[in-house]
């Protein structure tokens, strides 16, 4: 496959040098008076290089190249339909689509108009769609035939690609600035009701330093980017799709309703993928199948920490270091590992991305050398404008000038170590125990497929460590065996005093263990016991 790969260095945020400290010290966020993500991700490229590959469409099983010119033309057709429905600046536009050129074009069309796009996940059921559509106030949705049926109960205006006008709109992009609203991305709901994080047109720029770091300076000649993560989530939309388009790196679109190892390998091979973002769940499935992927230039992962065992396996399976990154829907890509700049440290996420001031703070908002709340100073490019129509919750997200992530962490020689969610940290007999380390340890056992660790109320110790374990097919690993496994590898006080074997764990649609459900289950067990 031959691709027109005009150099992209001029569009990278991290253009010069291979020293992390120098990149951070010399970094300044661009502050243009005018900024529109439609121009950044599509229109500027279409004007200069209309035949340049933008999206490599693998949904049919064979590769079809969608150029920037074709992507722009499709977005203009979406824009014409939106205008015909009376959509104007500030209106919300739902996008209920999996990975596809139309998905990308729909966001671009909304942004060009000054409207606000609302990504929606195809696996949502009625109530999940109802809450997001109702909260955002979206009255039009771009979707496909399946989505039209899903949306029928809501009485919205919907359109599929077949229903778009033949001729596109010709209006100029709206006169928007970095702080003007562009997209509402709903939190995955690991704690509490999903909230709509409202982001401005600067959010794409804000992602670029961390995305470039996580892919060993993305934007090199021959780079081709893909993730199995759905583009309805910030991890797919702004960790992969839009940064790839903005940097001129072709992005692969492939429909994977469920992650499948064989299909994953085929996509990477047939599309000549060189850069992949794998969520931890996908990495574990690849590891369980013993599947390697030679020929990659970079592998990034984020969402939950990886242990030393997974990182070591990744070096063998991919031939490159897995770069872990850190962020959340409200302020993403704030820290990352980057093998091109510094060595990885197992158990640590990496170092702050240029442009982000990351700190570990105490309850009063003062920086601390010990364990504390991971926080990001106001002014970061990828930081939310607000929670949509929730001023009190927006205010509660900040502690002075710091956005508090809700995660606990510590510093180790400039590396950020993730301890756990603030409400996930286990207090047992005076010890504060992070569940992630215990989960990582259990996952190194050959009989464990996946695991969730929580604190269970205990009258003597405040809490005890409880693990919910899904065994691999054919495994007969016992609780005593797994307890011994952890005792021999971690501190004696942190081993799980109780282990329950389960068929499956509660997961968000992004593949994160919902610990609040496991904690509720553990608490209910105490009530039954009494």
Automatic annotation (TrEMBL):
Q: Which UniProt keywords apply?
A: ATP-binding, Ligase, Nucleotide-binding
Can you give the residue ranges of the AMP-dependent synthetase/ligase domain?
A: 43-384
Entry-linked PROSITE patterns:
AMP_BINDING (PS00455)
Q: Does the keyword Coiled coil apply?
A: no
The residue ranges crossing the membrane are none
Q: Which residues form the AMP-binding enzyme C-terminal domain?
A: 437-512
Q: What class of enzyme is it?
A: ligase
One biological process term from GO is: fatty acid biosynthetic process
Gene3D superfamilies per record:
3.30.300.30, N-terminal domain of ligase-like
Its recorded name reads: Acetyl-CoA synthetase
Q: What is the native source organism of this protein?
A: Salipiger profundus
């Amino acid at each position: 496959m031959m691709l027109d790969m005009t150099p992209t260095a001029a569009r990278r945020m991290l253009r010069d040098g291979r020293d992390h400290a120098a990149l951070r010290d010399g970094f300044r966020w661009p502050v243009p008076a005018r900024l529109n993500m439609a121009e950044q991700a599509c229109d500027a490229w279409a004007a200069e290089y209309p035949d340049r590959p933008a999206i490599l469409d693998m949904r049919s099983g064979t590769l079809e190249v969608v150029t920037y010119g074709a992507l722009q033309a499709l977005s203009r057709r979406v824009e014409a339909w939106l205008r015909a429905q009376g959509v104007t600046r500030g209106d919300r536009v739902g996008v209920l689509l999996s990975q596809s050129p139309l998905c990308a074009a729909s966001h671009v069309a909304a942004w060009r108009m000054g409207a606000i796009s609302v990504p929606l996940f195809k696996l949502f059921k009625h109530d999940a769609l109802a809450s997001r559509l109702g909260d955002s106030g979206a009255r039009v949705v771009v979707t496909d035939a399946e989505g039209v049926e899903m949306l029928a109960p809501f009485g919205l205006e919907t359109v599929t690609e077949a229903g778009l006008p033949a001729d596109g709109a010709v209006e100029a992009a709206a006169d928007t600035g970095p702080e003007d609203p562009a997209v509402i991305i709903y939190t995955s709901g690991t704690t509490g009701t999903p909230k709509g994080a409202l982001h401005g047109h600067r959010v794409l720029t804000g992602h670029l330093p961390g995305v470039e770091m996580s892919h060993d300076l993305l934007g090199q000649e021959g780079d081709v980017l893909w993730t199995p993560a759905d583009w309805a989530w910030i991890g797919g939309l702004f960790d992969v799709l839009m940064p790839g388009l903005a940097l001129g790196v072709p992005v692969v679109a492939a429909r994977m309703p469920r992650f499948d190892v064989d299909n994953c390998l085929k996509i990477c091979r047939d599309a000549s993928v060189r850069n992949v973002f794998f969520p931890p769940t996908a990495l574990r499935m690849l590891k369980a199948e013993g599947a390697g992927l030679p020929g990659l230039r970079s592998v990034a992962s984020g969402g939950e920490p990886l242990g030393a065992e997974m990182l070591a396996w990744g070096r063998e399976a991919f031939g490159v270091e897995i770069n872990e990154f850190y962020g959340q829907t409200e302020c993403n890509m704030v820290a990352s590992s980057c093998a091109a700049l510094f060595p990885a440290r197992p158990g640590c996420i990496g170092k702050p991305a240029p442009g982000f001031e990351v700190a570990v703070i105490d309850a009063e908002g003062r920086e601390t050398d010990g364990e504390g709340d991971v926080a990001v100073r106001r002014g970061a490019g990828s930081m939310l404008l607000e929670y949509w129509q929730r001023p009190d919750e927006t205010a509660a997200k900040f502690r002075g000038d710091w956005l508090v992530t809700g995660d606990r962490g510590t510093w180790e020689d400039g590396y950020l170590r993730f301890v756990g969610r603030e409400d996930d940290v286990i207090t047992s007999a005076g010890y504060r125990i992070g569940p992630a380390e215990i989960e990582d340890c259990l996952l190194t056992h050959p009989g464990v497929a996946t695991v969730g660790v929580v604190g269970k109320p205990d009258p003597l110790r405040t809490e005890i460590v409880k693990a919910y374990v899904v065994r691999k097919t054919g495994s007969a690993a016992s609780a005593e065996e797994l307890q011994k496994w952890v005792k021999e590898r971690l501190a004696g006080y942190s081993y799980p005093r109780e282990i329950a074997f389960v068929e499956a764990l509660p997961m968000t649609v992004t593949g994160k263990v919902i610990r609040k459900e496991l904690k509720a289950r553990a608490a209910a067990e105490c009530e039954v016991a009494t």
